[in-house]
Amino acid sequence: MAPTYGSQSQVSAVNLAVEITTEVNSALLEVRYPELDWRNVLAEDQIITNINPGAQNFGFFLTDHQGAAGFQSNKGGKNVPKVNVSNGMITFPLAASAVAAEVTNEDARQYSMGFRLDIASQLGKAMKKACENLIETTTFFGDTTVGFRGFLSYAGVNVATVAGNDPADEASDTEWASKTGAQMVADVNAGISYIIDATLTVHKPGMVCLPVTQFLLLANTFMALGASATMVSALTYLKTNNSFSAMTGKELKVVPVRYLKGAGANGTDRMVILEQDKENQCLPMPMPYTLCPSVPMLLGAEFAAEMKHGSYAVPRPASMMYFDGI
């Protein structure tokens, strides 16, 4: 009778010999997932950690200094104009989260024998990954069950549609796939200029977030510059030739964010232009990922980790804007 091997019902002796002489790499080949994007849209100083872990909300005090001076010659006697300070508060919700795992003694023995690894450490990696994924999804998509808002469609942030590829035709195609490098650059500059002008220069947005496809289009579409027709990518050109750089002397930051594909109105691709600053956008995080001590159970152990963070917060919605149709 032919020997059996694994799930195969018929394996010849030759096949079996090949199987037992296979050299196995001792390292595990992990399944790969896309990199997390939330740290691409939030700088390190925008992650606010100096918050009491017991807090249920995180808030900002708002202060407005009001009043105007007047010339004394126009203000007789005691009729001198006075100033005032008004204060308010804006708050954002915080929510605690947790993840757990358990392992029996027999699981640990089998895992150690089969992989020469500690299953508890592998479960620890899985728990940390699960918590990071929660930050990722809530940062971009929000979560209405806990009152979280998301980066992709934040209430109060204005939305516009980019210009078509034919200025003479209002119904012309707005998508970058049909545009030249100069037109793509013009779309970004129009957005930056609009925010600067609409906010009376209060906000000077220096960051542009694009879907991956449009980021690569910008990077791989070349433009001829000057009399010598020097070729340069539209992305390279844009970073130093834009309204933000003209006003500040700083280079424009352009980053790909895969979730922007289809995030716009009617499923169109969305561009986000913002002034990246901890007073404009932030992520409250009173308690980062914290692994708790293991708890013994009958013939095994339980593991848990907890975390507490808040909604992606935009105290100043005018600091960013959505542009659809790219």
Secondary structure elements and their pairing?
Blueprint: H1 13-20, H2 38-41, E1 47-48, E2 57-66, E3 84-104, H3 105-115, H4 119-141, E4 159-161, H5 181-198, E5 207-210, H6 212-220, E6 222-225, E7 230-233, H7 234-240, H8 243-248, E8 253-256, E9 270-274, E10 283-284, E11 287-291, E12 295-297, E13 300-310, E14 320-324
Parallel strand pairs: 1-10, 4-14, 5-8
Antiparallel strand pairs: 2-3, 3-13, 5-9, 6-7, 9-14, 11-13, 12-13
Helix pairs in contact: 5-7
Describe this structure in words.
This protein has 326 residues and is of the alpha+beta class. It has a single domain, classed as phage-related protein like fold, CATH 3.90.1690. 26% of the residues lie in helices and 25% in strands. It has eight helices and 14 strands. The protein has helices at residues 13-20, 38-41, 105-115, 119-141, 181-198, 212-220, 234-240, 243-248, and strands at residues 47-48, 57-66, 84-104, 159-161, 207-210, 222-225, 230-233, 253-256, 270-274, 283-284, 287-291, 295-297, 300-310, 320-324. Strands 2, 3, 11, 12 and 13 form a five-stranded antiparallel sheet that branches. Strands 4-14-9-5-8 form a five-stranded mixed sheet. α5 (181-198) runs parallel beside α7. The relative contact order is 0.18.
Outline:
This protein has 326 residues and is α+β, with helices and mostly antiparallel strands. It has helices spanning 13-20, 38-41, 105-115, 119-141, 181-198, 212-220, 234-240, 243-248; strands spanning 47-48, 57-66, 84-104, 159-161, 207-210, 222-225, 230-233, 253-256, 270-274, 283-284, 287-291, 295-297, 300-310, 320-324. Strand 6 (222-225) and strand 7 (230-233) form a beta hairpin.
